[in-house]
Amino acid sequence: MGSILMEPEDIVTYAQIYHPAENYSSICLSIGMVYSRGLFQSSNPFDYSVPLLLAQLSLASIVSLCTSPLLKPLGQPSMVIQILGGLLLGPTFLGRIAGFTEVVFPFKGLVAIDAFSVFGCMFYFFLIGVQIDPWILKKIERKDVAIGISTVVLALALGLLGTFILLNAKLSIDTDIASSLPALATSSSVLAFPVIAHYLTELKMVNSEFGRTALSSSMVSNLFGFGVITFTVTIGQHASEIFRNVQIFASALFFAVVIAFGVRPIIIWALERTPEGEPLKQDLIYIVFLGVLVTGFCSKAVGLNIFFGPLIYGIAIPAGPPLGSALVEKLHLITSWLFMPLYFVKNGLVTDIFSLKWKNYLLVQFVILLACIGKFLGALISSIYSKVPLREAVQIGLVMNVQGVLELGMFKMMKQNNAIHEEPFIVLCLSMIIVTGTITPILRYLYNPLRRNAAYKRRTVMDLRPDSEFRIVACIHDQDTVPTIINLIEILHPTKRSPVNICLVHLVELVGRAHPILISHKLNKLNSRKATTSRTIVNAFKLLQESYHGAISVQPFTAISPYATMHDEVCEMALDRRAALIITPFHKRSPRNGMVESSEGGIKLMNDKILEAAPCTVAIIVDRATVKATRQDSCTLCRVAVFFIGGPDDREALSIGARMAGQPNINLTIVRVLANTSVSYEDAEEAKFDNEVINEIRSQMAGNLRVMYREEVVNDGTGTVAVIRSIEDQYEVIIVGKYHDTRSPIIIGLSAWREDSELGVVGDMFALADCKSNSTIIVVQQHKDFSGGRQENVNDNGFNVFRSRSVREEPSVPLRGSAV
Q1: Which residues sit opposite 48 in a β-bridge?
Q2: Rounded-to-integer distance, Cα 129 and Cα 242, Å
Q3: Residue limits of the Cation/H+ exchanger transmembrane domain (predicted)?
Q4: Please, where are the H alpha helices in 389-500?
Q5: C-beta of residue 458 within 8 angstroms of C-beta of residue 783
Q6: Could you report the per-residue pLDDT of 115-142, keeping only the tens digit for each?
Q7: For a Cys staple, 348 with which of 71, 90, 239, 590, CB 3.0–4.6 Å?
Q8: Which residues lie below 8 Å from residue 162, measured CB to CB, with a gap of 6+?
């Protein structure tokens, strides 16, 4: 039987559970029983191998998909869902129904399940390897090493201490349990970096501060734990066994060297022959897929685990685009939701929870629990010692206890080598679900990215002093938005007295990689081959900095991250650099139906989350120009309008426009819309503050002939739309606030037109897809007060924010304009 099966020990366990009285030494299959003739010809599909396999694949996926909504309120990861789905179909639940297993999972059908599940798991391990970038080792800090090593050491110490206590206590322990406890303590003390990386990515915490620390620390723990297991397994073995282990280790090392220095250069050479920007040749992808099977065969042939070859081969594949991302896109869905559920079902078929003795479960669980406590305390204590905040230290300690498919594979290998026996193996599988399932809701409760802003000093454009540095985080997704953002920065009036400091972040979607990467660039050269797509963008901002001779400074970065967590990178940048403004582009919509293009959905998601969690003011740029403009010429007149209705966001928009007014080539028009009603609909204090701001800016800019103030009186939202349509093609730049009081008659009726939450009601009216204007719309959201107190928009110097050097030097003459 073992000659035709990948994992024959599972078949032995299956026979012992379902057919204990029978002695199976072989599985008989009929060559002709492959395709069924159909029910209408009295042919039972479950008697034939292909229909049976299709039914098993379908059932495994359906159970996983049906289990997912039940666990969604707890936010459980896919691994917990799939393992529970496997247990549901096994002898623990549905398998206890008479005849269910004999019909759906008959003994003769296990050959196909075994082959498909193992092949699927090979590609899964290959996929894990593809998403691992080994160069992360270069970025590991001293605190990561301390946390990683202390996690394993304390877990191992407590686990072995518990084992020593149980073995020396006056307890009647079964021989199988007693012999398994040392290996159990050791295996429970190690953790796998790929599992933690996948877990944090799925929970959208990979870009958090504790997530990055946990990733680096788990990499150290993974390597250190592997060394500990190798050392402990070698001790106490006979000379012949030690020699065999040395041979296996030498084979593994030789195998890894051949792949790293033989296969990887060939793949890189093939990639270099593909022109940049063109899709990969399908032949290359098929050859890579073939390599997964070949490496699996080679690793099995030299005595290694069948999954070792695909894992090392995957690590050798260059992570990220173009090859890594293409492989992930093609393999992720079919591997994660078709083959892996079948793999967990096969494990569930040979896992009978009710076969456990309660006493044995408590003994084994005691050792596992001590090891988990050791992991938590080891990470917690070393994190606090490394001056990590307590909340983040607790989160790191929890994450270090996460387990997944790699640990399951290790447990099965230990069971196959008789290091642990059946009951300890079942307890390990149960513990994996219980611990990971318990940690997840706790971690979600503790993780709140908005808390980091609670103690953060309020930073808005209004709060800036006239002579202070204006710090901006500029987000770039592609080259199309570069001219617009550069033009915006230029009209923000950078001077040596009030310079503009730009943190440039080129945001690249993370595909085909397990962990995010932040690459810092120098303006004279790019220091990473991973960021070749950033070269043109960085060079454009380099020219901008050189042309302003100290009035503009740029620090460029490339952030490779998934869209779901990309906002964390942006907000961390703004937080660390004490930025007052985040500039991000608006997602593109189809000009035909106004729908969001699939490629732009991630940008919309990112913008929504930036608006929710930003530690400063946010400006979303809507570029409606059909032809991209070049850099703004200092002699070219630019007409700017601030559309003012009222509220904090409009006041922030007005402060941005006031800063622009200091630029000699800027004509600024403030268009204030007032309601034609005597009924008070708004907060009296907010209305008073609006009037104070308007009066202050009019007095501060009196004498600047390039600034005009006008009022428009409307009856309802229809009148507001008419004003919008009358000015949208008269200005190159229009600045509006995002949020407005929905009780105002000015806004009534406009909410039905709202298409995008990131722009607000008025901003979306300006950015409608059917508008023919080429003006640039800037939608502003003022920094939210996360402390729960009332926002104050006045700095220590009153309204000095509206003053600029060029304005103050002008003679005092009335503002031009008209009141309608």
Answers
A1: none
A2: 29
A3: 63-444
A4: 390-399, 405-416, 422-446, 482-491
A5: yes
A6: 888 888 889 889 888 877 776 667 788 8
A7: 90
A8: 185, 366, 367, 370, 371
> Residue 193 has which token pair?
């970096």
Residue that the structure tokens 């021989």 belong to: 175
Dist. CA 344–CA 349, nearest whole Å: 9
The whole-angstrom separation of Cα 231 and Cα 74 is 39
**How many Cβ atoms from other residues are within 10 Å of residue 157's Cβ?**
16
Q: Which helix (H) or strand (E) holds 366?
A: helix 358-385
Question: Within 456-582, where are the H helices?
Answer: 482-491, 535-548, 566-576
Distance CA 817, CA 706 (A): 11
Task: Give the closest residue to 162 by CA, choosing from 192, 144, 188.
Answer: 188
The answer to whether the CB of 787 falls within 8 A of the CB of 777 is no
With a CB cutoff of 8 Å and minimum separation 6, the contacts of 185 are: 156, 159, 160, 162, 163, 367, 370, 371
CB 313 within 8 A of CB 129: yes
At what angle are helices 684-700 and 648-660 packed, to 10 degrees? 10
pLDDT band at 233 (very low <50, low <70, confident <90, very high): low
Reading the block at residue 120, the tokens are 């699927």
799 pLDDT tier (thresholds 50, 70, 90): very low
Please give the share of the chain, as a percent, with pLDDT higher than 70: 81
The SS3 call for residue 774 is: coil
Measure the CA–CA gap between 191 and 225, rounded to whole angstroms: 7
